[in-house]
Every structure is written in C-alpha cells, then in structure tokens.
Automatic annotation (TrEMBL):
This is Sigma-54 dependent transcriptional regulator. InterPro entries: AAA+_ATPase, AAA_lid_NorR, CheY-like_superfamily, Homeodomain-like_sf, HTH_Fis, P-loop_NTPase, Sigma_54_int, Sigma_54_int_dom_ATP-bd_1. CDD domains: AAA (cd00009). The keyword Nucleotide-binding applies. It comes from the Bacteria. The keyword Zinc does not apply.
Length: 422
C-alpha cells in the first residue's frame, strides 16, 4: 500500500508526479499490486493514481470491509491474468512450434505479433504478396484465441462476383432477388462466435464495404432483403496483397473501413526476403508429400538448393510448395535431383545442371566446392541404386570399401538410409 500523503510530501500533487511515482514502483517490483491510501479531500488524486496503473484506492479512515473487498478484487484479477497467460503459453507451445519455426528475423517478428494479438478480439489486417501464407497466419491466430473451439470461416472475396458478395457475407431472405428461392445464412452468421477470414478484402464492392463497416463499428448487420438486425459476435481477420491506403487515395476503398480493419496490422514478408527459411520449408513440404505419395525422399540435391537460393520466388511459399510437389511426383530415388525440376528453373538453357559458379571465390576453392557437390550427388545416387550395400556401391564407383566408408563419413551419408532401395 502507498500512502498518498507520504508519497506527495513536499511535492505538488500533479498527474505527472502521480504517474511517475506509480511507474517507479512498477519498475522496481513488476508483479506488485498497488493500493493507494488517501484522505477524503485527496480522492481525485487517488483516482489519477489508479489511471496511472495502481490497482485500487482506499480512503481514510480505513474500514475492514473495504480493505477486504479491494484485496479480494486484486487477488481475483491476478488469478485471471495468471490463467490467461498459462493457457496462452500452453496452447502456443502445444501445436505452434512447428508452424512458427523460422530462421528469419522478419518472420520471428510476425510470430511475436501473432502471439500478442491471438488472445484478444481485435481486428487484424494481414498484408503481403500473394502466396506468402497469410491464410495460414490467420488460422494460427484463430487456433490460439479463445474462439478456437468455434468455426473458422474463410472467404476469398476476390472469387465472388460483386452482385453476390453481400449475399455471401450477410445472407439473404427468400425473394430478396431473382433466384433467392429460400432464406440463406451468410458467412458472418455461420461464423457466429468464431473467426471470419476475409481474403483479398480490397476487391469488395462499395456497397459491401458499407455493410462491413457497420459490422465492425456496431457489431450488427441485416440480411439482403431483410429488416431484422442480427448481432455479430465474430472476430474479423482481413488480408490483402494490395496497398489499401493507395486504394483509399484513389477512391476505390472507404477510408473509414480501412481504419477499422487496420487496428493491428501484420506484414508478412515475401519469400525472397526470408531465404533463411527456404530449406526449412522445402524439407517440410518433402515430408508432407512423402506421406501423401508413399515416397522415401530423404534429401535435396545441392544444385537444387543453389537454384532455390538464386531464384526470386515471385509466387512465394505457394510456388515453392508446387515445385516440391511436382518434383516428388517425378522423383524415383531418395534425393530430389535437378532432373525433377523444370529446366527453366535453373536459368537459360537449364544451366543449373552445372555447378553454380561463384567468381567471388578463388579458382581452387570454387573447384573444390564443385567437386564436393558432384561427389555427394554421385554417392547418393549410387547408394540408392545399390540399396545401401557398401560392397556393391564401392564396386560400382570403382573404389575400395574403405575409401567408400571415408567418403560417406565426409559427406554425412549412412547406408541405413538407402537399405530399402533396389
């Protein structure tokens, strides 16, 4: 407890002084709950202290019942915060570790923001190029919110004609327009209590924008052709690959709706700006398609990895996944080789089939690296062809088994990984 009279002794009881005093206590003891004691004529200053972060105040003279009630309120608030922190951390650690695994500082910032906003009901605006994974981020937010047991409804606004967008989002009454033969609930109604994800929000019509503004502003809407006002207990996450501020300047998007959507913006970086994650993502997709296609692909050829790092990825993560899927279909061995990828992916004339030339290196070092790349690829292919048999592989390669063992150790290859291949 802090006695306001002692706290302000010799100082003018200004709001700034009160804020500084409360924050100094919080800085020294972050977990402390502060109760301010004040004379009857200083209650206004006690209220200022509460606004600055104190947990409550008590007037002199102290009454046992008032002290007990204030202490109980603070105890209950601390319990609620503790439970929320525990649940948030437990659920995040439980199933998001793999999804949020990244080597990219930019993506770490994204996941930090997701963790902060997930437990709130705030509207989130995801921005970024097509294919960066905005829909996955939206689902991650939903899965770590207190709405995770309710529905997650995804709407691709750009795929719905302007004439139908309002009906899709808000529903319609029977006879509202030609073809409306029965009452239909909209996506907001279906998502009640859960989360609605509005992808490509910049494409919606002006009339639909007005209705969306009403939902965000008043938490209410009407079906097309209806008069009943429906309440909307829905968390809204929107996404766009366009600059909404620029669309506002052009008069194509309502500025007031933009402000309502842009409560908590999260910018998802393109793949070319997070190449630290390329190999992580590629291996993730390989494992996924191994399971789907009953394959046993265990690694990616170094030439392919070099091509990955030199490519600009205009289609972002989605393009990477599509390339890996195609390569997994074509690959018959245990290594994703350049032959399983389009020739143009390696530059003019399929040049990626030659070792990447790095002229920043001395000739001897560049030659050594090229030999290493070729040597490993040769050994992987030979081991796969011989089913992991060291004797057969050594005979095929024209070396002794001892030499082969040394080469395998040098390149981190294990015969067990190739045992089932014939």
């Amino acid at each position: 407890m802090i006695d306001l009279g002692l706290l302000l002794e010799g100082r003018e009881p200004s709001r700034r002084v009160l804020h500084e005093a409360v924050w100094e206590v919080k800085r020294r003891v972050p977990s402390a709950e502060i109760i301010v004691l004040a004379d009857a004529d200083a209650v206004r200053h006690a209220v200022d202290a509460v606004q600055a972060g104190a947990g409550g105040y008590l007037p002199y003279p102290l009454l046992e019942e008032e002290v007990r009630l204030v202490a109980q309120k603070l105890h209950e608030s601390a319990l609620v915060r503790s439970e929320l922190d525990y649940l948030r951390d437990r659920h995040w650690a439980g199933d998001a570790v793999d999804m949020a695994h990244t080597n990219s500082p930019r993506m770490r910032e994204v996941f930090d923001k997701v963790r902060l906003v997930a437990g709130t009901r705030s509207t989130v605006l995801l921005t970024g190029e097509t294919g960066t994974g905005k829909s996955l981020i939206a689902r991650l937010i939903h899965n770590h919110s207190n709405r995770r047991t309710r529905r997650f409804i995804s709407v691709h606004c750009g795929a719905i004609p302007d004439t139908l967008i309002e009906s899709e989002l808000f529903g319609h009454e029977k006879g509202a327009f030609t073809g409306a033969v029965r009452k239909k609930p909209g996506k907001f109604e279906i998502a009640e209590g859960g989360t609605i994800f509005l992808d490509e929000i910049g494409t919606v019509s002006q009339s639909a924008q007005i209705k969306l503004l009403g939902v965000l502003q008043d938490r209410a809407y009407q079906r097309v052709g209806g008069e009943a006002v429906l309440r909307a207990d829905v968390r809204v996450i929107a996404a766009t690959n366009e600059d909404l501020a620029a669309l506002c300047a052009q008069g194509r998007f309502r500025r007031d709706l933009y402000y309502r959507l842009n409560v908590f913006p999260v910018d998802v970086p393109p793949l070319r700006e997070r190449k630290e994650d390329l190999l992580l993502l590629a291996e993730l997709f390989v494992r996924r398609y191994n399971a789907q296609m009953v394959k046993d692909i265990r690694s990616i050829h170094p030439e392919v990895i070099d091509a990955f790092m030199g490519y600009d990825w205009p289609g972002n993560v989605r393009e990477l996944e599509n390339l890996i899927e195609r390569a997994c279909i074509l690959e018959s061995g245990t290594v994703l080789t350049p032959d399983s990828f389009p020739a143009e992916f390696f530059g003019p004339g399929g040049g990626g089939r030659l070792a990447t030339v790095d002229t920043t290196l001395p000739l001897a070092e560049a030659r050594r690296r090229s030999v290493d790349v070729f040597e490993r690829a040769y050994l992987e292919r030979a081991l796969a062809q011989c089913g992991g048999s060291v004797q057969r592989t050594a005979a095929l390669a024209g070396v002794t088994t001892r030499q082969l063992h040394k080469l395998m150790t040098r390149h981190g290859l294990r015969k067990e990984d190739y045992k089932l291949r014939t």
